[in-house]
Write a structure and sequence with these properties.
The chain is α+β, with helices and mostly antiparallel strands. It is built from 13 helices and nine strands. The protein has three domains: about 140 residues, SMI1/KNR4-like, CATH 3.40.1580; about 70 residues; about 60 residues, no CATH class. The strands form two sheets. Strands 1-2-3-4-5-6 form a six-stranded antiparallel β-sheet. Strands 7-8-9 form a three-stranded antiparallel β-sheet, covered by helices on one side.
Length: about 300
């Protein structure tokens, strides 16, 4: 850790006084977590860093503690990196991926960023070292708030065998929860990020068990992986959804519900009375529930009465 901090100082980042061990202990107590050793070592050496050149601040422990006011929203996460956009980088404390760094979004689901706090620091240093020779346009792409960090973007290709193993563990972890729990959704989306070429079977499984948000991520991942098997998954899923929507249109029409085709997509439709737009990907996930069609017809008629 000392070598990493020396590199920050050499690049003009002012080092702060280190935090007291008792303060780290208090953070552990407040968030009910066991901090990784690299995180403790960093904060014992410097209580945060302000890296304004990249638009990010590694918060002081006092700054981190302020997030304790949001226990439900941050269950299993400890924010530490602030880009002044309400989307903090955070340590994850879920059993399969303890110590991973996650990017939390205030208006969307979280993304996996990297495997450890040390790796996160290395990515920040890599950008910082490129700043002196960067053009004005290149500086914008290096600013973290504008171009987010991440080893596990859905569109990046390389994945290791151990990444896939973590992905499988996350799928098993999701089985502890219901589809109404945020841990269920987030663990399946994280798993999607960890699979690559050779994991098409796992990606297919995610299409079977996931909801529309999971489907969206899996399809993007399949496109990026680009193997014949992954592209076939993407193609077959799109075909199956199209067939489902066509069948649904027939069922609703026969039930006396007037629909209007949405010409922008060619196969989706709108319920005319009430101008109701259906979330087809979500409904596709419900298609095997008992009396699915009857239940949907009753819901539509209820919406039309409002």
């Amino acid at each position: 850790m000392e070598e990493i901090l020396t590199r920050f100082v050499q690049l003009g980042i002012r080092r702060n006084a280190g935090a007291e061990p008792s303060h780290l202990d208090r953070v552990e107590s407040v968030f009910a977590v066991k901090l990784p050793e690299d995180f403790r070592a960093f904060y014992l050496a410097t209580d945060g860093l302000d890296i304004s050149e990249l638009g990010i601040e590694l918060l002081s422990l006092t700054g981190i503690e302020q997030f304790s006011d949001f226990p439900d929203e941050l269950l299993g996460y400890l924010p530490f990196g602030d880009c002044n956009d309400s989307n903090p980088y955070s340590l994850c404390f879920w059993e399969p991926i303890v110590g991973f760094v996650v990017h939390l979004w205030h208006d969307n689901g979280p993304d996996l960023t990297c495997r450890s706090f040390t790796r996160f620091l290395e990515m920040v240093l890599d950008r910082l070292e490129r700043i002196p020779n960067a053009t004005e346009q290149e500086r914008d792409t290096l600013t973290i708030s504008l171009n987010h960090l991440g080893d596990y973007s859905l569109v990046s290709i390389p994945r290791g065998l151990d990444d896939a193993q973590f992905g499988r563990e996350l799928i098993r972890y999701s089985e502890r929860f219901t589809s109404q729990d945020h841990q269920w959704l987030e663990s399946l989306c994280f798993a999607t990020q960890l699979f690559g070429a050779g994991n098409e079977r796992e990606l297919s499984h995610l299409l079977e068990v996931g909801n529309g948000f999971v489907h969206r991520d899996v399809l993007r991942r399949c496109q990026a992986v680009g193997t014949p098997e992954a592209i076939a998954l993407q193609r077959d899923h799109t075909k199956n959804v199209r067939l489902f929507i066509d069948e649904l249109a027939t069922v609703l029409t026969e039930a006396g519900i007037e629909i209007r085709r949405d010409n922008s997509s060619g196969y989706r439709f709108v319920i005319v009375q009430g101008n109701i737009y259906l979330a087809f990907e979500m409904l596709y996930c419900e298609r095997n529930k008992p009396a699915f069609h009857l239940s949907l017809i009753e819901r539509i008629r209820g919406w039309q009465k409002r």
